[in-house]
Amino acid sequence: MVNQRSTTKLEPCPCGGGALEKCCEPFISGAQHAVSAEQLMRSRYSAYVLGEENYLRETWHKESRPAEAVTDAALKWLGLEVRQVSQQEDAATVEFVARCRVQGRGQRLHEISRFVRENGRWFYVDGNILEK
Predict the structure, then answer these.
(1) Whole-structure pTM value
(2) Strands (DSSP E) along 74-130, which ranges?
(3) In DSSP terms, which residues pair with 122 in a beta bridge?
(4) What is the pLDDT of residues 17-63, one digit of tens each?
(5) Residue among 83, 97, 93 at smallest CA distance from 122
(6) What is the pLDDT of residues 81-99, one digit of tens each?
(7) Are 51 and 19 in contact, with CB atoms under 8 Å apart?
(8) Which one, of 110, 79, 115, 75, lies nearest residue 96 by Cα?
(9) Domain containing 33 — which CATH number?
(10) Element (H, E) at 58
(11) Is residue 44 part of a domain?
């Protein structure tokens, strides 16, 4: 079950794609499914920001989904930059940088994430973290 939040038209989407209710909320709420790996990646980032554990688990491929919770209330997510998207039929990669603050210290997560499409739905598989 997805958290029920009241959203307003003016609430910005954490992924930077406009208003939350027209950007990532339809995916997180289950009203729609992402039609591209980039959409799924952006909605998953927003789900991390919003603490939507269920959505993250539902969109994580069953072969690589961790058993433990993946959200962390101690992280304060600050922004997302999608750098490159490569999609070939039912496989894709998305390179991104997500900025966050942990105990007052700024950090960056630079990752190339892998996605697969099965039965018309995109799933996050795993990612390679790139070091500076």
Answers:
(1) 0.91
(2) 75-88, 91-102, 105-118, 121-129
(3) 117
(4) 999 999 999 999 999 999 999 999 999 999 999 999 999 999 999 99
(5) 93
(6) 999 999 999 999 999 999 9
(7) no
(8) 110
(9) 3.10.450.50
(10) helix 53-58
(11) yes
Number of domains in the chain: 1
* Residues 6+ away with beta carbon under 8 Å from 49: 14, 77
Q: Which residue range(s) make up the domain with 88?
A: 25-129
Output the six-digit token pair for 126. Answer: 């795993």
Three-class secondary structure of residue 25 per DSSP: helix
Asked if pLDDT for residue 119 goes beyond 60, the answer is yes
Contact (CB, 8 A) for 92 and 85: yes
Alpha-carbon span 118 to 108, nearest angstrom = 30
Calpha distance 28→46 (Å, rounded): 8
5 within some domain: no
Tokens 């039965």 found at: 119
Alpha-carbon span 127 to 11, nearest angstrom? 29
Q: Taken in order 98, 99, 100, 105, is the CA torsion positive or negative?
A: positive
Q: Which amino acid is at 98?
A: A
